[in-house]
Design brief:
Elements (H helix, E strand, L loop, with lengths): L1 H7 L3 H7 L3 H25 L3 H18 L3 H11 L3 H27 L9 H18 L8 H16 L11
Helix pairs in contact: 3-4, 3-6, 4-8, 5-6, 6-7
Length: 173
Amino acid sequence: MHQICAEVGMSPGALYRYFPSKEAIIAAIAEADRKHDAEMFALIEQAPSIFEGIIACAMAHIRHTHLDGNAAMFTEIRAESMRNELVRDTCLQCMMDVENDFRVHLERAIEAGEIDPVVPLESLLGILMSIGEGIAINDLPSRNITFDEIETALRVSLGALLRPRDNAIATRT
């Protein structure tokens, strides 16, 4: 709550005039993140390949989480989702929305022969979501791991998972 209040420049009492509960605040944060997610997924459509699009999307997510200082809040919300059913439902819905967006792009790329994942699509989706969430929660740039290093590691690891047809995995950073 302190981080949320600091971010919007309000006291907790003033914030609760706009939101009836902590769960409503988290739902509003999730909705704002969902709008940002839509912008990130547009990067996939704009990229020359699904692989480059996923890399662009992942890096945009990592930059957004780090530069906006959202890693700690994201971690707190995920921790709260383990204790609070309403927050869990909000988090699960957000994750399902992102997963479904990925599913559409990945299915299309698999059908086109652009990628040949090493695991079935449903497993791949869970793995990709875990990688993204793990990087976001750990805020790797704040640990002096550069964006270039993160991108290189993502290219290699996601290249191994997705097996893109063009095979130009770690050459572009």
